[in-house]
Amino acid sequence: MTPPDKNTVVQVLRNLSLLLQLKGENAFKVRAYDTAADRLSGTPQDLGALVQEGRLQELPGIGQGLAEKITELVTTGKLGFYEELKAEYPPGLMEMLQLPDVGPKKVIALWNELKVGSVAELELACRQGRVRELKGFGAKSEAKILEGIALHQRAQGKRKLLGDVLPTVEELLTRLKAVPGVVRVSPAGSVRRRAETVGDVDLLASAPQAGPVLEALATSPGVAVVLGKGESKCSVRMVQEDLQVDLRVLPDEDFATALHHFTGSKAHHVRLRGLGQDRGLKISEWGVHRADGTKLPVPDEAALYRLLGMQYIPPELREDSGEIEAALEGRLPEDLVSMEDVLGVVHCHSTWSDGKHTLEEMARAAHAMGLQYLTVTEHSQTSIYAGGLKEDDLKRQWEEIDRVNEALPGFRLLKGVEVDILETGALDYSDSMLERLEVVIGSIHIRHSMNEDQMTQRLLNAMDRPGLNILGHPTGRLIHEREPYPVRMEEVLDKAAERGVVVEVNGKPARLDLKTEHVRQAVQRGVKLVVSADAHKKEDLHHLLFSVATARRGWARKGDILNTLPAAQFVSTLKALRTT
Ligand code: DGT
Ligand code: CA
Ligand code: CA
Ligand code: ZN
Q1: Is 269 in the pocket of ligand 1 (CB under 6 A)?
Q2: What global pTM score does this model have?
Q3: Which of 41, 56, 114, 400 is the one with CA 20 to 30 A from 352?
């Protein structure tokens, strides 16, 4: 079992502070938990090492008692004290604490005076005007609480970014996998299909006995509320992201068909069921049955597709967008790009512009991921807000790049830039400067509010500039934050094909730009792509995963992705593709 990570421990400490306040513990004791949470989240030191070496008490604010609790939590995955305290109150109280304008004092009053123990009960009490009668509340604060509840519900309804959810999913899966008797575990649903946003998380496990596996989820650190628990199912809501997680546990012989069912998508399924019927097979979450009721053994998903006389369809493609026809005709690509194919990362920033880590730190981190190169692409001079570089700064940077490359044999930083595409489509550096670089990404960062004609023309003009190799995050969207700017993507992609400009599939979880549909249009035109991290710190290098997922969902094959080539070939192909 992997121990709970630092974030989880910090969250448990904060929850404990709130629970102790509910219990009426003195302020001094309560504050100790908040202080410990602050110290822990603020230290750059590795939590696992601190625990193992018994050095927790070296952190100011962490005394013996707290050190013991943290050690118990990290080494056993559970903290008895926390579990007992949590069990004393309705789980909904923790959720009430997440409301704006509702602190521990108010929760205590609401619980003690009105026996209000959940957000739903609180809403009802407010609507009945019972809350305003309480000491310390009033009509105004009642109205404010109602506003807060509406906000809270909207946040819950909001789909989460895959990138924000995946680390939690992986932590839970590791925990479930470690339960004795467990045979297989997997995510299902939109998480497994690598959709850009997810509504909730679906998990599946196989084991002879469901009980202990369900219990492992229900008692996971980071669980705010157990929403329901039955014989084979358990649903919880995590504190982080307000994320709902549904787990199903079944005997291993039913795993593959259930996994397939709960992976979806619904649209993909409906079509497959129809195909099954044509062959006299009934496909359901319970398995594949003949008309006479006999159940066919289905050891894995590939076997299910074989029964239907079609190619295996990877989860990322299961959206009923042509994959079923292709698989029936045997023309589904079998070499979709995968993480193993990618040899280098494109698009990173360092302390030279708005990044957090030095070039050497970025290089070492990429090297440690098994990659061979990283394109250094800082912002250009017009992006002042992002520490954009002047041409002279860039030349000084090359000296540092050379030094790092010498220090790290077997790995290469490539000299590049993410040059701003200005309002007219001109680029932010001179042609002679751009010519000297190995990789030039051109992106729009300023003046988003142009109309469709202007914006399309701006991008077309930029691609006419000989110095541009890669068009960066072409629509500028930020999921949940900013709409894509209006642009006729097909025209842009036609131009990219004509000019030999490569297009980025930006892997930053809120960007994913190109998005899936655009990747597909690009691939159909023979436009080459790069998968990128848009990393501003070491940890972001893993964004590559989301870029690769988006590329796969857009049916991109290994050969469509330029950074599956070794460094030297990557650079020479970038240049050779360009037509003027
Ligand atoms: P989400 O959670 O909105 O991001 O999307 P999904 O795809 O994860 O959907 P979810 O969690 O409601 O259900 C998980 C999978 O279970 C879904 O992809 C397919 C399967 N499923 C759920 N409801 C139905 C249904 O009514 N019919 C069929 N055929 N499958 C269903
Ligand atoms: Ca789901
Ligand atoms: Ca679900
Ligand atoms: Zn950018």
Answers
A1: yes
A2: 0.78
A3: 41
